[in-house]
Amino acid sequence: MSGRILFLVKLQLARLNFSLPTATAFKGTLFLFCGCLALMPSALAVTASSKDEGSKEFGDRAPKHLAQFSFPRLQFPGFPSAPRIFAITAERRALLNTIRYAEGTWKEGADLGYRVMFGGSLMDSLERHPDKVNYTTGYASAAAGAYQFMPATWGLVVRAMGLAGFNPQVQDQAALFLIQKRGALALADQGILSAELAAKLAPEWASFPTLRGSSYYGQPVKRLTELQRFYEANLNRLQGRVPMAKTVPQTAPPCSDNSLDCALKSF
Fold it and tell me: pLDDT tens digits for 121-155?
């Protein structure tokens, strides 16, 4: 059997015009492979009929059965994993809202803030990032959305998470991805807007202060104390710790005359 395999491989090598050194090296490997086949009892199994059982040599009519070779299972590329979905807790929502507040897209929590482009104008559609440069006095930027994503940053997040569209839910997930990318998600989950957390987010959002209190990019920046007040009030509201205002039932003023209508209201 090994001799037949060697013959077929030699024939194939000749067809492929293998060079002599390559063929010689391959021949040594092939002999080793054929020797392994000869030593593997499970690879080739020869069984004799009941009449020849126990004999050492089989006749020409003795049935021979070749065992099936066991090939390794082929490994195919898997399907791409589903994009990770970040849970939005009260602490994370409070931080997202604070980022919107700092970036000027809070809009009292309305979804309108998700359509804001740099400079204050609104995009027509939330199907995709507008990738449009807008100008203000001394500044020009293509940032857009509630978290003022730059086109390059948005492209990175889309590739990493497999996001589609530019709707509010997608923008929230993208912002959380960037928070995690800056190594700040664990700090955000503590429910405190510390100076360390703000400084970690400063390279991502220019309106957040560094530890020195200035913008990472030399742009207008919010004071940490102002951001902390907004964050704490927002978190308290989200966690239900702000008491609801009690409604006082309105009562009609008492009658002061002797009319029939006034007498009927007294019952």
Answer: 999 999 999 999 999 988 999 999 999 999 999 99
Distance CA 157, CA 245 (A): 42
Mark whether 2 and 100 lie in a shared domain: no
Count of domains for the chain: 2
Please give the angle made by the CA atoms of 203, 209 and 213, to the nearest 5 degrees. Answer: 130
Would you tell me how many other CB atoms lie within 10 Å of the CB of residue 24?
10
Q: pLDDT tens across 19-41, in order? A: 444 444 444 544 444 444 444 44
The H or E element spanning position 135 is strand 134-136
| Residues 103 and 229 grouped into a single domain | yes
User: Could you tell me if 208 and 201 are in contact, meaning their C-beta atoms sit under 8 angstroms apart?
Assistant: yes
Spatial separation of the C-alpha atoms in residues 214 and 223, rounded to whole Å: 9
